[in-house]
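Ticket #4471: structure output looks truncated?

Reporter: J.K.
Steps to reproduce: submitted the chain below (505 residues) through the standard prediction queue, then opened the result file.
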Amino acid sequence: MRTHHVRVHRSDEPLPRERQLAHAIATVAAERIDPTPEVTDMVVNRVIDNAAVSVASLGRAPVLAARAQAQAHAPSSGGRGATVVGSAQRTSPEWAAWANGVAVRELDYHDTFLAAEYSHPGDNIPPILAVAQHTGADGAAFVRGVVTGYEIQVDLVKAISLHAHKIDHVAHLGPSAAAGIGTLLGLDAATISQAVAQALHTTTATRQSRKGEISTWKAYAPAFAGKAAVEAVDRAMRGQTSPSPIYEGEDGVIAWLLDGPDGAYDVALPEPGEPRRAILDTYTKEHSAEYQAQAWIDLARRLGRERPELRDPAAVESVVLHTSHHTHYVIGSGSGDPQKYDPTASRETLDHSIPYIFAVALQDGAWHHVDSYSPTRAARPDTLALWRKVTTAEDPEWTRRYHSPDPNEKAFGGRVEITLTSGDTVVEEIAVADAHPLGARPFARADYVRKFRTLAQGVVADAEAERFLDLAQRLPDLRPDELDGLTVTPLTDPAAAHAPRGGIF
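Returned output as attached by the reporter:
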């Protein structure tokens, strides 16, 4: 990897474009490198994973609304259009990226990478796939584009914290998706550089979308970034330029949105010819909840089965989850959000409440993407009583491990201390989720396939599910016409029974 030192430059201290971070990202994206078999296999896994969580969300209101917006936009004249999951109608690629991006993110159930910043790298797939279908690319080109999208997002997430300045994490997604589309289309570095800068400029927003009463926009935010990336690449291909330098400028992102005029970052990007392997550092979710809750769900399920008395709030005095700074302040009691203890809160809020998640997983010994969030489940009196006894506390050691550059030490769990009314205590810890590469049951191809089949059950015909799985597992060899098949048609159209409200389009 080559480290790029990125700092603010005054306007009277010009920074040549070839020394700007946007150009360095573009240089990586412009180099055609065929991925290793291991990386290709993981791309296949994540395409299956995205389809699984999209199928599970097809009937949800945000997904139906996004789909209706997309269907109002016919394929543009530049290509054949792109598919929208759940629909037989092709749309313009930026709108397909929008609708599919919402479907992928709606249940917060796909892959993740956590470092200096948070991310769901699978959010790169919808915009890259939409452009691939629209332009008639083949499976190999699509795979290369996805590999770039993951590489750039992971590299930015390792180096630059956005949340520390209350900037939403999709500010890293706009540039990574633009870079991935650039690789897909075989664009030169100069063009990709303009697209990366435009995509960043148009996708910076505050983290209020993930604070307090979390709204349906949580699923739309990454879809918006993907749509913006498609549009940015289109403009760049037409010769249009972008704010420069977007990261390093005196009035740029670092100076005004991040660490300020004295801010500086070291961003490591692949050397020329170096394999792009960042996707292998990422991990998916076994459970539909914020990633930092994954290990806690596994621990709570086990404790509930082994110690059923812990499920009774009358037997429990307190539950303290000693964990990382991120977990405590983002999904824990350190957030200061009373909504995290509110049984009437939105699903989007509850999946960012580790006190709620731990209490329900402890009592049920299981976790379900629908049932665990139902209003009746959240309002159960014994759950309310236990839930309000669960708090979090930052532990410096778990914070250190969270940020460790050593993948064998990096951890997203913590230590639970349960004090019983009898005076006894139960102390257990877990470092990573069972499905994590270093967990008790690391996810492999069979697990991704099982996740897809489980979530597709009753929603998609068995023959349709098997058709998709066969196609996805031949991904690098797909012809352009076969790439169109990377979508899923449900048994019944959920829009027929739950037609969304009309809008402008």
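Triage note (M.O.): checked the attachment and the full token line is present. The mean pLDDT is 95.
Status: closed, working as intended.
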